[in-house]
Amino acid sequence: MIKTATVSVPATSANLGPGFDSLGVALELRDLVTVSLSDIAGVRVEVSGEGAGALPTDEKHLVAAVFLNALEKFGVEIVGLDFSCTNSIPQGKGLGSSAAAIVAGLALAQAIALDGQVDLDWVFAQAAEYEGHPDNAAACVYGGLTVAWKNEVSHSRSIEISPSIHAVVGVPTTELLTEKARGLIPEYVPHVDAAFNAARSALLVVGLTEDPSVLVEATDDRLHQNYRAQAYPDSISAVTTLRGANIAACISGAGPAVLAFATEDQISDSKDILVNQGFSANSLAFALTGLQIS
Fold first, then answer.
1. Is pTM, for the whole model, over 0.90?
2. I need a labelling partner for 27 at 20 to 30 A (CA). Which of 116, 160, 252, 270 fits?
3. Nearest to 216 by CA among 277, 269, 261
4. Strand, helix or coil at 279?
5. Neighbours of 286 (CB within 10 A)
6. Does residue 33 have a pLDDT over 90?
7. CB-CB contact of 88 with 95 (8 Å)
8. Does the pLDDT at position 1 exceed 90?
9. Is the pLDDT of residue 242 over 90?
10. Could you confirm whether domain 4-159+288-293 is CATH 3.90.1150.30?
């Protein structure tokens, strides 16, 4: 059994407007996590970067908790653990920080238990079950643009995104727990709204792969963003302003971050709009590779 392993996991944006709990994309903004077996009892987590000073530094840290749970399933007993987390993904912003932590914990546990071997499909299946929805997990594990769905188990397929499209992400200072955001969505929605989103989700795949000219219309949504607007009014305002400038934009995941799909000539305007509304703004490459293990 190996004594140490390192994983790199990307940020992700889910929903992408209409694709609630099904569409996701990986972004080239990564957390780097290393675990080492120790002869000193207990769990110790060192966090630098995003979340430093706020996240737990013991077995309550999400990476550690998932790791310990998975290692128990593998039947592996250990004395102590040291984790090192170098975080670049903002916490609680809708950029998949929880999914990244879950994927990291699962992959590290399998690597330790199976002498460095990691099965991406196993990691995805476990992560989707842990989160309760497969969209962020799929993009985090496989990278790129993913379509995920669930019946008895979760499934995912990757699609090549058009190189003419760029991601611009706006991150506010506020945070929002996914559980709170989900609690704002009603159990039932009108049939006309469901049909609206079904059409936009299909159109979004066309827009992200073949025809960016339809992306503004394709990123429209009636299933979740309006219901959650009270939780992030500034984010909704930024999305509205971007869309008014003919830039495809939506809430990233559960929010409050904002994601814009911009063409080359829209990147600067996208950043300016977001900064003027109080967001930090960055153009990020799409992560074509998801989970990486060393």
1. yes
2. 116
3. 261
4. coil
5. 22
6. yes
7. no
8. no
9. yes
10. no
Single-letter amino acid code for the residue at 272: D
Structure tokens at 96: 């998949």
Query: Which element (helix H / strand E) includes 108?
Result: helix 97-113
Residue 95: what residue type?
A: L
pLDDT at 178 (0 to 100) = 72
Distance between CA 12 and CA 169 in Å, rounded? 11
Phi/psi for 118 (5° steps) reads -135, 130
Residues 12 and 99: beta-carbon distance below 8 Å: yes
Query: What are the extents of the domains in the chain?
Result: 4-159+288-293, 166-284
Task: Summarize the confidence of residues 129-147 as an average pLDDT.
Answer: 97
Characterize 9-41 residue by residue with b for buried, 16 or more Cβ atoms within 10 angstroms of its Cβ, and e for exposed: bbbbbbbbbbbbbbbbbbbebbbbbbbbbbeee
Domain spanning 166-284, CATH architecture: 2-Layer Sandwich (3.30)
For 219, other C-beta atoms within 10 Å of its C-beta total 28
Say how far residue 173 (Cα) sits from the centre of its chain.
18
Identify the helix (H) or strand (E) that includes residue 101. helix 97-113
Q: 9 falls in which pLDDT band (50, 70, 90)?
A: very high
d(CA 246, CA 241): 9
Q: Count Cβ neighbours within 10 Å for each residue of 174-190 and write b for 16 or more, e otherwise.
A: eebebeebeeeeeeeee
